[in-house]
Amino acid sequence: MGTYKRFPITIKKGKGCWVWDYQGKKYLDAVAGIATCSLGHSNSSLRRALTKQLKTIQHVSNLYTISEQEELGQWIVDHSCAEKVFFCNSGAEANEAAIKLARKFGHLKKRIDQPLILTAKDSFHGRTLAAVSATGQPKYHKGFEPMVKGFEFFMYNDYESLKLLLQKIDSQSPSVAAILIEPIQGEGGVIPGDLNFFKQLKELCTKNKILLIFDEVQTGMGRTGRWWGYEHLGIEPDAFTLAKGLGGGHAIGALVVQKSADLFEPGDHASTFGGNPFATKAGLTVAKEIEKKGILSNVCERGQQLNQGLKQLVANFPEHLLEARGLGLMHGLVIKEESSLLSQTLVENALYHGLLVVSAGPKVLRIVPPLIITKNEINHLLKRLNTTLQAVVN
Question: I want to staple 91 with a disulfide (CB 3.0 to 4.6 A). Which of 96, 171, 234, 243 is the partner?
Answer without folding.
Answer: 243
